[in-house]
Write a structure and sequence with these properties.
43% of the residues lie in helices and 15% in strands. The chain is α/β, with parallel strands linked by helices.
Length: 416
């Protein structure tokens, strides 16, 4: 960690992450860019006189990366995230992941960082205070997915960089775009982000690439590249809407107050037509397989409601439940179960009765999703909270607690 500069009111934070699998699965020599970036004055990385720089090289565990991102996201001042690595697509859930040191195609869901985790952590930040600069290589499936769905982070986040497809030739690619950024800064030049992006993309070259310029109008691109502005316009005002029904029902709502901006879920700058209700656009993204976009949008709405109405508010709980149902659509039953349990606990904390239909519905859905979990350690880890909820909220199906306890006994015996 390097601290540079004087007594700025809001010092900036730069988080440098270089991640890629070890061995034959490595598509990019991500960590090779860190010495080059480390030689750049910290103030150039953040655009502030005082700066804190944090490096994370070839991390092993997604939770470790998430913890670092979460800590950086809580900083009051500007945050700049520089990310070198490779994108891979979870074939089952159709979700993009940032591969880490131990990631393989078969262990991706447990050893890589889901892109929507990153989007969710950054969604809490003040619009305009976050810049993400990426230099990524995408495996063939991730590359096709990017062409269909783009890459989303969220409202108020500037996203610049370059994504290239994996080379058919053996050997890891170099993070040429980020190295070009560092060379420009080390020359003493301090161009604005849009100009820096254009210069770095031109130096990095590459006939086939996706150039990201979300937050620059118009998007900029180097010759031979394809400009991609796939950020979703997420909410900047609150919705007073409330629903506990599954996605198909909440997406049909139209009671959002006038003046709430629409969510844009289509890639490459396409604008979602229709009313200001964000639910249909979020559902459309999820049904089209753009689960990371849908999850990021719902997380941003939830954070907005938390800021305006506070934790435990009906508005915030609604979006928590939307996120739970989106996880179901993304075929992530463990996350869906966890979110439904959190929603049920929040409603009980609001002193809603255990037989309230909203409370019962949340626990029933958590129970159902828990039954779908095939990751036995994860199912066992979630079970104690679910058992406590079932004791408090037995529901209307007789014997639900006994069914839960019998399956838990099977899991402890090592049977699925």
């Amino acid at each position: 960690m390097v601290i540079n500069g004087g007594d700025a009111a809001e010092p900036g934070t730069a988080l440098l992450i270089a991640a890629a699998p070890v061995g034959r699965g490595r598509l990019i020599d991500a960590s090779s860019v860190l010495p080059t970036l480390a030689a750049v004055p910290p103030s150039a990385l953040t655009g502030t006189p005082a700066a804190t720089v944090i490096e994370l090289a070839d991390p092993l565990d997604p939770q470790t990366v998430l913890t670092r991102i979460r800590a950086a996201a809580t900083a009051e001042g500007p945050l700049s995230l520089y990310l070198a690595g490779q994108l891979q697509l979870d074939r089952k859930q159709r979700l993009l992941h940032l591969a880490l040191a131990r990631t393989t195609p078969t262990t991706m869901r447990y050893t890589a960082l889901p892109w929507h985790w990153l989007a969710g952590e950054l969604a809490i930040r003040r619009p305009g205070s976050t810049t993400v600069v990426v230099d990524l290589v995408a495996d063939p499936e991730a590359w096709r997915h990017l062409g269909e769905a783009g890459l989303a982070l969220g409202h108020g986040i500037r996203l610049f960089g370059r994504i290239t497809p994996a080379s058919p030739r053996r050997g890891a690619a170099a993070p040429a775009y980020l190295k070009a950024c560092a060379e420009i800064w080390r020359s003493g030049a301090r161009p604005d982000l849009a100009a820096l992006h254009e210069q770095a993309a031109a130096r990095a070259g590459g006939e086939e690439s996706l150039l990201l310029a979300v937050g620059a109008v118009p998007p900029l691109g180097a010759p031979g590249g394809q400009a991609l502005a796939a950020g979703m316009a997420l909410p900047v005002a609150a919705s007073a809407a409330r629903s506990t029904a599954p996605v198909a029902a909440w997406a049909a709502r139209s009671a959002t107050p006038a003046g709430v901006p629409a969510v844009r879920s289509a890639p490459v700058g396409a604008v979602a037509a229709g009313s200001s209700d964000p639910h249909p656009a979020i559902l459309a993204a999820a049904q089209a397989g753009r689960h990371s976009e849908a999850a990021a949008a719902a997380a941003a709405w939830e954070q907005q409601e938390l800021r305006i109405h506070g934790p435990g508010s009906v508005q915030a709980i609604h979006w928590l439940e939307v996120r739970a149902d989106l996880a179901r659509l993304a075929q992530d039953p463990a996350l869906s179960c966890e979110l439904w349990m959190t929603a049920a606990a929040a409603r009980l904390t609001r002193r809603q009765a255990p037989d309230d239909p909203d409370v019962e519905g949340a626990v029933d859905r958590a129970h159902h999703q828990w039954e779908q979990i095939r990751d036995l350690p994860r199912a066992r880890a979630l079970a104690p909270v679910l058992v406590r909820l079932r004791r408090d909220v037995p529901g209307r199906q007789r014997g639900a607690l006994q069914v839960l306890q019998r399956r838990l006994e099977s899991l402890h015996a090592g049977r699925p």
